[in-house]
Amino acid sequence: MSLIVLAGSGIAIATTSVFALRWWSNYQKYSSLRNFPSPKGHWLSGNFSDLVAALKAGKLPQLFIDWSKELGDVFVIWNFDKPNLVIGNAKLIKQILLKGQKDGDFVRGGSAYSAYADVFGVHLGNQIGEEWQWRRKAWTPALASSKFLNQFDVINQASLAFIEKLEQKAINNEAIEIDPLFLKYTMSIIAYFMLGVPLIPQEDPIKPILDSEKIYSSLAVLEKQVLVQGTTGFNWLKYLPTKKNQVYREAQNYLNGFLHPRIDLAFKLARNQELNQNELSQISQPLRNSIMVQMAKAPRYTPNHLINDVRAGLFAGHDTTSHSLSFAMGELALNPQVLQKAREKIEPVMKQGLSIESLKKLVYIEAIFKETMRLHPVASQLSIVAKHDTSMVEKFIPADTAIRLNLMLAGLDSDMYAQPEAFHPERWLDVEENGGIEPTLFGFSLGAHYCLGAPLAILEATVILSLLIYHFDWELVNGRSSLEQLGQNITVFPQDRMPIKFKARKFANMTT
To answer: Is the peptide bond before 208 cis (omega within 30 degrees of 0)?
Structure first.
């Protein structure tokens, strides 16, 4: 027995020594970061407990805003012995994304990207170097703006169907949660372009058919897991025998079960492999034209590559746009002068009918969407890592420092945006409306990692917002709290799902 006790004590001492050695090594390595302001924290765990508490309460974005009010737009938080440099200065973020990444001073990485790769698999969005380059090269033509403009009728058809359903729901003047409806809308569009799923899913010959609510809820489980692992730095959490982790595994299995038949068929079709009679019956023109099939033609792509990219693409292609649309509806309800100006721009266009040409006259609607993304960035943070020793705001930054670029703080930076609290779309159309400063849109990132899906997001947002503004009046059920009370998976969304009361405008018609 004494030998067992001694052995146990020896293991405990050795383990403690290892942790103490690592802590001391990190303390020395990152000592310069203690020159930055930091929120008060525990002597050992730092700000870990605050982060976890905010994560559980869905208040993580607000926590960083509160810290910035006290500490400024550049500060350090500590997760035990690991620091995170938080940057909310818009001009500094712009410099890092454009010049810093181009010069190789900063690369995507950190616990958030590690978690993203662990949960969603290795894909275009979490890679760097040569592997990222060949995938990016393959995806770029598939997501060109011309592709979506050439299929404008698809987006218009989905948008008109959305308006028709909303008109039916609005008859009883009951509160309608608009965020889930936008999720269905954006999912129908991204599933059409990405997977070749018809706008009416029941017409899809491939089974199982698209269930947008089930897809979203499954993706939301994965997103939440990324947020938990990225915040805590503990990727092993998903292996614990908990009910939440069982739900996580079920979500992974559901998404794989939905995507695998489509991925397998895409590879056979793209590489001219022999198809059996059942597979031939599943081939449709939308499938042939889908991004998934185009990607499968790339020689270096494997089914594993593609399923990871498609899964991440479904999330990025509908979640972000839908929540941004919800916030736009909230801001328009609270800013009637903007809504009225938008109507004045839209009504002459609607009388002629929406088309590729008439979209050019709706730049004010696009500006509304951009202003929404500034004030309500649904992807609130970008994670990068200092590749080598560098300096920032006249302070030394050691290599491997994890950095969080906080876009929510950046959007409120008065050095970049005049009257940053105001909802003022005009700033995106005339620099004089922004105090003579050229505003920067961070919502799609910048530089080499600019979001490839931006053209589709802007196009569908411009179309659906134009139709909504033309066809309806509306009011928020919960007022400004719908924009201030936030939930978060990876993306930020209105906690109450933005309940709205709609009233159809009698003189509006469906001439589009």
So the answer is: yes
Total residues belonging to the chain: 512
pLDDT at 3: 58
Question: What are the beta bridge partners of residue 82?
Answer: 79
**Nearest of 154, 151, 184 to residue 166 by alpha carbon:** 184
Dist. CA 24–CA 323, nearest whole Å: 43
d(CA 371, CA 385): 28
User: Helices then strands (H, E): number in the chain?
Assistant: 21, 12
Can you give the pLDDT at residue 511? Answer: 46
Q: Give backbone dihedrals phi and psi of 301, rounded to 5 degrees, phi first.
A: -75, 140
Residue 242: both structure tokens together: 């908990």
Q: Give me the phi and psi of 424, to 5 degrees please.
A: -135, 85
Residue spans per domain, the chain? 138-376+418-504
Give the residue among 478, 496, 500 at the shortest CA–CA distance from 487.
496
The burial class, CB within 10 Å (0-12 / 13-18 / 19+), for 130 is: exposed
The b/e string for 66-101 (b: 16+ C-beta within 10 A; e otherwise) is ebbeebebbbbbbbbbbbbbbbbbbebbbebbeebb
Question: How is domain 138-376+418-504 classified at the CATH fold level?
Answer: Cytochrome p450 (1.10.630)
The pLDDT of 208-235, averaged and rounded, is 92
Question: Per residue in 38-73, pLDDT tens?
Answer: 999 999 999 999 999 998 888 898 999 999 999 999
Cα distance between residue 42 and residue 80, in whole Å = 9
Phi, psi of 381 (to 5 degrees): -145, 150
d(CA 393, CA 93): 12
Cβ atoms of residues 191 and 185 within 8 Å = no
Q: What is the pLDDT of residues 147-176, one digit of tens each?
A: 999 999 999 999 999 999 999 999 988 999
The residues, any chain, with a CB within 8 Å of residue 202's CB and separated by 6 or more, are 209
Q: What is the pLDDT of residues 293-319, one digit of tens each?
A: 999 999 999 999 999 999 999 988 888
Q: How far apart are CA 143 and CA 29, in angstroms?
A: 42
Other beta carbons within 10 Å of 337: 8
Half-sphere exposure of 298 (CA within 13 A, CB side): 19
Residue 223 binned pLDDT confidence (cut-offs 50, 70, 90): very high
